[in-house]
From TrEMBL:
It comes from Solanum chacoense (Chaco potato). The lineage of its organism: Eukaryota, Viridiplantae, Streptophyta, Embryophyta, Tracheophyta. It holds the Pfam family LRR_1. Coiled coil: none annotated. This is Putative ovule protein. Residues 2-111 form the R13L1/DRL21-like LRR repeat region domain. Signal peptide: none annotated. It comes from the Eukaryota.
Length: 221
């Protein structure tokens, strides 16, 4: 666990940890502790960019990251072995990183995205492939959404068109292995996708609209 990252001045200082060169580190936690009463420059994005881990990383936790973008190493190419991810206190983020194509991903927690209004295509990270149907989060088992006061919409992935005439279609399977879904303190969220093929446990708190429809959704599975 790496605490006090608000004290790191820039990317150059963060790079000195040489985390990208340490293949035996499988778990990392990055923690910031910002004093919001101080009018100070926030260098989170540059610091996190300099803390790029080795591709062998399996579990990552990021807490109180206050920039609006994540670095480019948040991808299936540079985190191919990631199994578990927790992003907490990312209060200024309006989008979630593109994570849907991580092949070994099993557990995802998204907490405290106060500016997030919509979960959609950016999150899924889909690229059209004419030769195969597409799976989004193919092996994810558990998903947690918590404390997102502005989240109103969670979009499904629809059939994608290929070719200039738009006639060719590519099928999309969302969360084909998801078994547990927990949603808490997302009071404005109006609906959730109904494409969960293997869902076994659904927990919703702090949202009267979704709580009312929970029994109907469970009956479908």
């Amino acid at each position: 666990m790496i605490r006090g990252l608000q004290l790191v001045c820039n990317r150059e200082e963060a790079v000195k940890a040489h985390l990208q060169e340490k293949p035996d580190i499988f778990k990392l936690a990055y923690l910031w502790s910002h004093d919001e009463s101080e009018d100070c420059e926030v260098n989170d994005e540059y610091v996190l960019d300099g803390l790029q881990p080795h591709p062998n990383l399996k579990k990552l936790v990021v807490v109180n990251y206050l920039r609006t973008r994540f670095p480019s190493w948040f991808s299936e190419v540079l985190l191919p072995n990631l199994v578990e991810l927790k992003l907490s206190g990312c209060r200024k983020r309006k989008e979630i990183p593109s994570l849907g194509q991580l092949k070994l991903f099993r557990h995802l927690e998204l907490i405290g995205f106060h500016e997030l209004e919509c979960i959609g295509p950016t999150f899924y990270g889909v690229e059209v492939n004419k030769n195969a149907n597409i799976q989004v989060f193919p092996f994810l088992k558990e998903l947690v959404l918590w404390n997102m006061p502005r989240l109103t919409e969670w979009k499904e992935m629809q059939l994608l068109s290929t070719g200039n005439d738009g006639r060719d279609r590519v099928g999309v399977r969302m969360f084909p292995g998801l078994e547990k879904l927990r949603i808490s303190n997302c009071p404005l969220l109006k609906s959730i996708p109904n494409q969960f093929e293997m869902l076994r446990e659904l927990s919703i708190h702090g949202n009267q609209i979704l709580e009312f429809g929970i029994e109907v959704l469970l009956l479908k599975h």
